[in-house]
Fold these 4 entries.
Entry 1:
Amino acid sequence: MRAYRIAFYGSLLVLFLRTRWDDYAGVAAALYGGPFPAPGSWLPWLRRFWLLTLATSCLGLAQRLSSVLAFVLGTYLLSLDWFFGNTHHGYHLIWLCLGAWAGTAREDKSPLPLCRLLWCLVFFNAGLAKLRHSGLAFASGENFQHILLLTRAGYGGQLNGAHLLLLQHTWLAGTLAALAWLLELCAPLAFFYAGWPRAVIVLGLACLQVGASQLMFLNDFRKMAACYVFWIPWERIGLCARPPARPGAGAESAPGCGPGPPAGVTPHAPDPTAVPG
């Protein structure tokens, strides 16, 4: 689990290194609608301390305490945008994964299955919400073109060639909308089925978020990249990094690589008192 811990907390540290909530410290407390204390002049220091807990969690220093502090401080910082009326897609998944690591920080428990399940449920809930509120009309090309124009007006982005292509071809816009919706509804299958179904769903949703960040100007999708590290088979990558064979080792496997001795068989060292020959 060390590789997953380093990848998760390390990527969060890099992705949030330039994210600042300092402007909220000067906003009137009356505009704050959260249950926690309103942000004050101490907010920049709280952000620095949170980044420090991400770094110590990545390095495995005081792992249980660091992961709990990263979750508690992250709960406050990641919720500031919501309580001031803004929306950031993906922050809730990051917060849930931080909670999973904080709750299973002991060595005998792995947060990996829980983080993968949360990832699947978040995407499935997004697809289910589209079904409940829009129905099958969500997959129509006209609806997707309307969404593109609304997001462009809301975020003030500039239309590029991809926007013009989708606005000119309704069938293409409808195909992309239906494919994205299908991937979201199929997200739970990635939890139960390994191999090519998992690879298709995870890579497809990654492409979906990259495309959404470009077409709908949702740059906060980039921070969700930290939650994709749970699908990378780090253990297989580690098996590829074999140490060089020692002289005279023969076909003996390196520690942690390849098959070991059969179950119940303990390898014995040569007896130094035995007479040669």
Entry 2:
Amino acid sequence: MIQISLAPRTISGFKRVHGGLVAPNEVPEANGIILFLASGEIAAMGALERLDVMLNDALYGILFRDINPQRTLIDQYFSRIINGYAGVIINTGEDNYLTTADAVEAAHTVLASDLINEQLALLAGLPEEQMGLGHAFEMDPMLENGFLLELAQAQMTREIFPKATLKYMPPTKFMTGNIFRGHIQDALFNIIGIWTHQGIQLLGMPTEAIHTPFMSDRYLSIENARYIFNDMRSIGEEMEFREGGICRERAKTVLNNAIDLLQQIVQEGLFTALEKGIFGDVKRPKDGGKGLAGVVTKGDNYFNPFVKMMKERW
């Protein structure tokens, strides 16, 4: 996996200060990458082993592992408190939505979920710099101007979350086994990654959809990324987005749709939204899935001193 970290150029003029939208900042550097699915116990083990990055998504376990929604949100809250205290970067799995839903039509659900994950992380005391909010390059390569739409969404995500160590995922859904076209798809993905200054970039493999990548496949992917990241290092500082152009209009559309969806969720509630299959076209009932038997109401004498201590560490 390759990480890139540079200052972005604006597409919509957004940045954030104390939850508001302002101008973009530089993304902090990070070290090596290791990934795990997080619960409180695994978060503690990762903290003890000084893990760099841990998969920790408030919604992924609900949607793609059929873990009960109530249980998941409780577990993720406490595990994020541990991750925040230990300095572990979390990453979220919104990219998976685009493997089960259309990447063009469902793009706003990715942004809405990123915003939900951000707020849940802040409630757990996790700094923005430790949020690897997820998104992906998953549009049909036969789509006209698909590159521009992908570029717009990646730049929009960087501007809305200027401090976050964004996690950008490579194409998988439309990798057919044609290694030559697949290598080009990965190259376009890498161009957007360096252009929009993503934080954690997982490299695509030319043999995706054929077999588990060989070391030689991985080498080609790293070579591809290094070439593009070096040759196009400063393209984000040189290029601007035309007012009224495809990129700006796409970013506005996705953002507006995400706002509308969040307003709908405010009215209906998150559990109802999950039951309707709003995210990833996957429906999960509030009382369904695994683990609900382990959820209990706190008693009057419940006391946990560690939550307060870890959240107020600074």
Entry 3:
Amino acid sequence: MEHHTTTFSPPLIVYRSYCPPPRFELPSRAELFGGLRQGLLLGTAVLALILPPDGSGLRKNNAFVASPLAAPLQTSAYSSRLADFRAQPASEPARRVANWAVASGDHRAMPFVILDKLEARVFVFDALGRLLGASPVLLGAAVGDDTVAGIGARPIAEIRPEERTTPAGRYIAEPGRNSMGEDVIWVDYDAAVSMHRVRALEPSERRLERLASPSPADNRISYGCINVPQRFYEAVLRKTFQGRRGVVYVLPEVKPLEAVFNKLPSQRFPATSVLLSQK
């Protein structure tokens, strides 16, 4: 739960005078092929050290930050496209909503986020539905899909335990600052619900340990806000929402999926996703 006191402002664009690049000479063909061969051998050795033996990437309870993606595709054909989860594990409801958002264009060509409350995991996609990162999260301590009217204007000390929910729904999110001056991603501004870096201020809450645990059962601790690891916030969320808005889909944990996203078609999309970068 946050206290909001700020508004969104566009990024500052600075123009610099042009300076010609320095001249350089290309290496000989023999030197060029020798350098490429050495680089390939070194890269193979590094990959063998850092990748897990099963080739599945990072484990489910860890954060995943994607490598830089190719330039965005210039296309508006949504109907035959699905979300690219880049081999990351995800529940069927998360895949279903992400695939629908991309196929229908519901995200309005903006980056979007899928928050799976039952799995306590967040997925961040670019405007073309390609996964930028995934991470475990901490959520509202109370189970529920609704928020209390006027809760955003109340002091945190007055929020009762049963009111500390992370509300489900479709939200237009944007960057901003809370009452402490910390930059956050506002999800539901009126309810003071945001995505922000985890704050390990009270040792007894064990927030960092909860994020690191393999089970989502102990990830309910906040007043309603979505807590993410600091590195994930800096590397994925902050960059994705820098100077722009996005759509956040918070999946329900009590209500049926169709009751929250009434435009979601009854026919389910395939669970396997198409690699959009290869289309």
Entry 4:
Amino acid sequence: MPTTMVKKIAYLSLCLMTIFFYQSITSCTTAKKVKYFKNISDSIDHTTNIAEANYVEPRIEANDVLFVSVQTIDIKNLTTDASTRNNATEENLSYIVDKSGHIDIPVIGSIKVEGLTTFEAKELIKERATKYYVTPIVNIKFLNHFINVMGEVNRPGRLPLLNEKTSVLDAISLAGDLSIQGKRENVLLIREENGKKVAVRFSLNSTDLFQSPYYYVRNGDVIYVEPNKAKARGATTDASRDRYISLTSTLLSIIVIVYTVFLK
């Protein structure tokens, strides 16, 4: 084979390798941004210990809506048939904490619960209920606690906090995880603290999230996932057209190189 032809083939190969290398680098960069917790080793033989932020139980406030049920297998001398309440729905057993911090439970009476955790309120109601019930079983939970998850998640919306101890990761899971276009390295959380809005940002690419004082969500929190550059650009341009232009440009580059090497 003539030396000139060998050089042309080598030049063509080098050009094609450069094009494909650039495309693979772009693809790898995207994959790195999608991956969660990049600072954890990929080795299955390596164990990573992750510290977690302290959890602070929410306290009952005025205007909170509470589910409260008191059940027993026996009732002391009562004119009210309280046993029928065992089959009541959450709606009939919901109580709004009034401005003075009290709830009024039939038979048991008015009890101040503002400032208490649900566990503390449960114990207080149970203590009061023993005057009227034999070995009462008390259950209490919040009914009006919600978070809002917005932006690039698969199921955005207002989500009820069914568990008091709910983390940012739990909230994102409830929203169906981030879409592929969501920015994992810069998630925004907005919270009201002492009457003021506080905005913090965190990255899902790092385990530092677990140590954040905002790791556990609170009632009223807003989580917003921004779109990545590709999605944001697609909002103003046709994404399919951009892909077509990119593919066409690559093919034209290859044609030009082949023509330059072999036909000139």
